[in-house]
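Students often ask why inverse folding is considered easier than folding. One informal answer: many sequences map to the same fold, so there is more than one right answer. In these notes we will look at a single instance of the problem. The structure comes first.
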């Protein structure tokens, strides 16, 4: 039985059944056989054998073997005499039968990023295309952009998310004044840093209770309700218990570091009936999987599409206006992946972060529009005039963005904004 007779197919043939189309970038030595490499991926990541073995049936091949549906060289070279380099670059598309993994993200990733991919040098997963049938098996975000805006009661501007600084090392009662000042100043959401979860010196049970009570008191006195997002990151069994405890004690959102915790854990959390609050997926650790140009997978796919399918209502990711050198188009494209129509899957709220201050907040809003949640830490707690001024400066900057006036003009009216520009906007 010659498997190569079956492994190559037109893309049109995959419309007869439900396939996931994975698109890879592959760099090969100029004389290497790209047909053999592509076939090896399609076969090795599905029926898993390169030669005939007992038990391999025609039905198995028909229903479960991957198909190579695209091999495109970049630039396209037709004549061997035109080869001018010892390397060639290809975009390879492989169709994987979705029956092999279903809506199981760990198994799905094992299939499209398994041994034959992850251990082969110079292969990077760029994107996946899923069928409507498979997408419908993922619950996706429960709240999404619309639900988060409804909870905040804000519809006409980017939302402000204050991540409390310092990151960790403090008992919960010492952070109450920081939380209260940020809430009174007008932060929409206040969250734990990704480095603080259920620590021995700052347990979730105590922290959530104190912050919930503080948020309620501020609301009763000012009419502004700041929401609290609790970090529940832990091993799978404990993070579920952390989530139940946090919601029971009054957390308005929960946060999970979805890369170290695993997309399967995020998916399970999103499907918990008693975790009826929005979930923020944090990007910690994503660079270990995305930074290489010749291995891993793309950041828009990991942070945008996969976290969204797994059920993240909001997804944090780094912005290019900080020390992290993310390409601007990757930044914008990642946000696209969170919000573009995807069958009936709700859109996730993009949550850019990393050194954001009033000037960069406006640049991000220009890039992504109003449906974003700006993560700000140091520019609030570290504002030269204090945290209250830090929140005021951000609101003033966003007012200037909405009013389409220069930041400098608004800063002439708002001293807190001027102080922020003096401190951080070095252009």
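Output (designed amino acids):
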């Amino acid at each position: 039985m010659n498997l190569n007779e079956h492994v190559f197919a037109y893309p049109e043939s995959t419309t007869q059944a439900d396939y996931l189309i994975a698109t890879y970038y592959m760099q090969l030595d100029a004389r290497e056989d790209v047909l053999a490499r592509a076939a090896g991926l399609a076969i090795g990541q599905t029926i898993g054998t390169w030669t005939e073995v007992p038990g391999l049936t025609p039905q198995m091949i028909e229903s479960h073997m991957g198909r190579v549906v695209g091999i495109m060289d970049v630039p396209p070279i037709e004549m061997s005499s035109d080869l001018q380099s010892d390397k060639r670059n290809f975009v390879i598309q492989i169709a994987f039968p979705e029956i092999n993994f279903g809506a199981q993200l760990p198994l799905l990733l094992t299939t499209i990023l398994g041994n034959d991919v992850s251990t082969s040098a110079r292969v990077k997963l760029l994107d996946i295309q899923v069928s409507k049938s498979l997408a419908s098996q993922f619950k996706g975000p429960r709240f999404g952009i619309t639900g988060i805006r409804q909870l905040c009661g804000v519809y006409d501007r980017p939302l402000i998310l204050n991540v409390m600084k310092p990151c960790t090392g403090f008992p919960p009662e010492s952070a109450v004044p920081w939380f209260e000042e940020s809430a009174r100043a007008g932060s929409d959401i206040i969250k734990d840093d990704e480095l603080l979860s259920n620590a021995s010196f700052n347990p979730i049970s105590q922290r959530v209770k104190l912050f919930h009570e503080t948020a309620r008191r501020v609301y009763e006195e000012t009419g502004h309700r700041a929401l609290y997002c609790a970090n529940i990151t832990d091993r799978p069994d404990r993070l579920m218990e952390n989530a139940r405890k946090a919601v029971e004690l009054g957390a308005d959102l929960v946060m999970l570091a979805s890369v170290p915790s695993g997309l399967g854990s995020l998916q399970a959390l999103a499907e918990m009936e008693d975790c009826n609050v929005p979930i923020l997926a944090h990007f910690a650790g994503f660079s270990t999987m995305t930074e290489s140009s010749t291995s891993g997978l793309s950041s828009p796919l990991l942070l945008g599409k996969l976290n969204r399918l797994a059920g993240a209502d909001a997804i944090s990711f780094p912005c290019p206006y900080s020390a992290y050198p993310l390409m601007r188009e990757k930044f914008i494209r990642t946000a696209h992946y969170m919000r573009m129509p995807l069958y009936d899957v709700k859109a996730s709220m993009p949550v850019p972060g990393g050194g954001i201050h009033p000037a960069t907040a406006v640049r991000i809003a220009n890039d992504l529009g109003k449906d974003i949640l700006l993560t700000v830490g140091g520019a609030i707690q570290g504002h030269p005039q204090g945290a209250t001024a830090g929140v005021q400066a951000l609101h003033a900057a966003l007012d200037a963005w909405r009013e389409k006036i220069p930041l400098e003009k608004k800063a002439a009216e708002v001293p807190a904004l001027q102080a922020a520009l003096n401190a951080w906007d070095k252009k």
